[in-house]
Amino acid sequence: MSDERTLVLIKPDAVRRGLTGAILSRYEAKGLRLEALEQRRIDGAMADRHYADHTEQPWYPPLREFITSGPLVALVLQGPSAIEVVRQMNGATNGMVAAPGTIRGDFSLSNRENLVHASDSEESSVREIGLWFPGLA
């Protein structure tokens, strides 16, 4: 297993609910290392760059409104197979069906307001880290 890096966004719903610490502690307890972390608000242009592959989808406008609705926490995690490990820890996109023990399974009842985003591949990770943390690219 080689070390990988992955971008994670702790979305505005999780920040509003005070779940940032609980979510971060799960990643750290798993053994992933925190390489960068920043709380920020993003505008529509940043949302469009982040979700560039999805901007033409009919479900994108509500997602754009949600992701820009309040502060979020962007972070980079590093560790063995970090991309897959984080995606497994996050659980299925829809919190209603995500397995218990996953972040979404334990804390989310929504498909859109689903607490976290994580890179889905090495290619996405490189692109997303470059967008959110250009100094790490």
- Low-confidence blocks of residues: none
Biggest beta sheet attributes: 4 strands, antiparallel
Q: What's the rounded overall pLDDT mean? A: 96
Reported by name, the CATH topology is Alpha-Beta Plaits
Series of H and E elements: EHHEHHEHHEH
Please tally the helical runs, counting DSSP H or I stretches of 4 or more residues: 7
Radius of gyration over all CA atoms, rounded: 14 Å
| CATH architecture classification name | 2-Layer Sandwich
What is the oligomeric state here? single chain
What does this structure look like?
It contains seven helices and four strands; from the N terminus they run βααβααβααβα. It is α+β, with helices and mostly antiparallel strands and about 140 residues long. A four-stranded antiparallel beta sheet has the order 2-3-1-4, sandwiched between helices.
Observed structural traits:
four-stranded antiparallel β-sheet; 137 residues; globular; Alpha-Beta Plaits; alpha+beta
Q: Briefly, what is this?
A:
The chain has seven helices and four strands; from the N terminus they run βααβααβααβα. It is α+β, with helices and mostly antiparallel strands.
Topology:
Elements: E1 3-10, H1 12-16, H2 20-30, E2 33-40, H3 44-50, H4 60-67, E3 72-80, H5 82-90, H6 103-107, E4 116-118, H7 122-132
Antiparallel strand pairs: 1-3, 1-4, 2-3
